[in-house]
């Protein structure tokens, strides 16, 4: 009987040890997979392509040694005094009138079709009620010679593309925000308002210009889809924020990066302090931390949507922004045809 109990005890201990080591190995494998997943997401290493000799490589937006933990992957500040490897610095001086609204559309080299559709639809509008609009596309750099060449040829036709001298990665979206502030301040300083949006958005210029023209507040003004959320601590989330990077339990008020507008003076002030703020890879949250430092309270407007609004003529006649649908050029055409139809 004692022998039986001893054997059972030994077997139980062995099984417990097995489970312990099994779970340890599973945890280590999961942690390693999460780190690799975040490396891919952030693209902290150059693409495995030959370097582009036409682009300077002195400043890189990645550490020389790959991060060993997920937190280290985020604890990287890629800011530098980046220039523009492709620049249309005369974009705001082509007309005789002052630019009322500068719209900077975040795009990537591969999104040729998105830019084409925007130019054929809402981006084709350059004047509303005698107020001038300038639309430009902001990209980062790639190390693919063919893609770079195609974009340069595209720009020769349209003269509306700017390329920042930093790698075009998810983590570097914040660099695009800083470059937006920089370009606007240096090359379009007289624009009354600057709008940031993405190349998968539908933007209703007529409604936006008429809205802004009726504003009495002209300074320290930011408006868009109002957000006040908590940091996501789940490492698998696209919007993961390590506590070591942002320790507070709630973000300062910010505006969804899908589309927001800033007054001219605010853009200049934001650019001046952008190097003093802790770097966050979530670009719209980063903008919110700048506004918090400047004592600016962003305003929300329900006509800015950070999701796709189901199309109806009256719904789109009233909104400012919406995520696009595959047939948004058709939507744009229908809107022009039905423009004078009344909506309740």
Question: Could you characterize what this model shows?
Answer:
- The chain has 344 residues and is of the alpha/beta class.
- It has a single domain (84-337), classed as Spore Coat Polysaccharide Biosynthesis Protein SpsA, Chain A, CATH 3.90.550.50.
- Helices cover 38% and strands 18% of the residues.
- The chain has 10 helices and 11 strands.
- It has helices spanning 2-42, 70-74, 112-120, 145-158, 173-187, 205-213, 264-273, 283-294, 313-318, 328-337; strands spanning 84-86, 99-106, 127-128, 131-141, 161-167, 193-198, 201-203, 222-227, 254-263, 299-300, 321-323.
- Strands 1, 2, 3, 4, 5, 6, 8, 9 and 10 form a 9-stranded mixed β-sheet that branches. Strands 7-11 form a two-stranded antiparallel ribbon.
- Strand 3 and strand 4 (131-141) form a beta hairpin.
- Helix 5 crosses helix 7 and helix 5 crosses helix 8 (283-294).
- The longest helix has 41 residues, at 2-42.
- The chain is globular, with a radius of gyration of 24 Å.
- The N and C termini lie far apart (88 Å).
Tell me what the CATH architecture is.
Alpha-Beta Complex
| Estimated structural class | alpha/beta
- Kindly estimate the percentage of residues that lie in beta strands according to DSSP: 15-25%
The CATH topology corresponds to Spore Coat Polysaccharide Biosynthesis Protein SpsA, Chain A
Q: What does the overall shape look like? A: globular
| Major β-sheet profile | 9 strands, mixed
* Assembly category: single chain
Chain-averaged pLDDT: 82
Helix-strand string: HHEEHEEHEHEEHEEHHEHEH
Q: If helices are DSSP runs of H or I spanning 4 or more residues, what is the number of helices?
A: 10
What is the CATH class?
Alpha Beta
Compute the CA-based radius of gyration.
Answer: 24 Å
Distance between the termini: 88 Å
Count of the domains: 1
Which consecutive residue ranges, at least 5 long each, have pLDDT under 50? 27-31, 37-68
Instruction: Bin the helical content.
Output: 25-40%
Beta strands, count = 11
């Amino acid at each position: 009987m004692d022998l039986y109990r001893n054997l059972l005890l030994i077997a139980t201990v062995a099984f417990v040890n097995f489970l312990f080591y099994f779970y340890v190995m599973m945890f280590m494998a999961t942690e390693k997979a999460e780190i690799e997943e975040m490396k891919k997401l952030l693209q902290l290493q150059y693409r495995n392509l030959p370097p582009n000799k036409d682009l300077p490589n002195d400043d890189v937006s990645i550490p020389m040694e790959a991060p060993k933990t997920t937190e280290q992957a985020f604890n990287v500040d890629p800011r530098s005094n980046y220039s523009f490897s492709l620049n249309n610095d005369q974009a705001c001086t082509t007309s005789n009138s002052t630019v009322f609204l500068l719209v900077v559309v975040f795009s990537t080299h591969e999104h040729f079709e998105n830019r084409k559709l925007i130019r054929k639809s809402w981006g084709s509008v350059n004047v509303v009620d005698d107020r001038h609009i300038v639309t430009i596309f902001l990209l980062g750099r790639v190390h693919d010679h063919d893609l770079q060449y195609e974009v340069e040829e595209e720009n020769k036709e349209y003269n509306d593309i700017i390329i920042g001298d930093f790698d075009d990665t998810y983590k570097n979206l914040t660099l695009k925000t800083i470059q937006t502030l920089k370009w606007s301040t240096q090359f379009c300083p007289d624009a009354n308002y600057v709008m940031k949006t993405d190349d998968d958005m539908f933007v209703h210029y007529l409604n936006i210009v008429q809205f802004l023209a009726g504003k009495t507040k002209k300074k320290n003004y930011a408006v868009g889809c109002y957000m006040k959320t908590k940091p996501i601590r789940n490492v698998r989330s696209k919007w993961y924020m390590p506590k070591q990077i942002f320790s507070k339990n709630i973000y300062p008020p910010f505006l969804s990066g899908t589309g927001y507008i800033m007054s001219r003076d605010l853009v200049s002030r934001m650019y001046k302090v952008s190097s003093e703020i802790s770097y966050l890879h979530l670009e719209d949250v980063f903008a919110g931390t700048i506004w918090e430092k400047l004592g600016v309270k962003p305003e929300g407007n329900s006509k800015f949507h950070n999701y796709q609004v189901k199309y109806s003529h009256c719904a789109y006649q009233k909104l400012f922004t919406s995520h696009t649908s595959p047939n948004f050029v058709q939507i744009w055409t229908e809107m022009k045809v039905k423009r004078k139809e009344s909506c309740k």
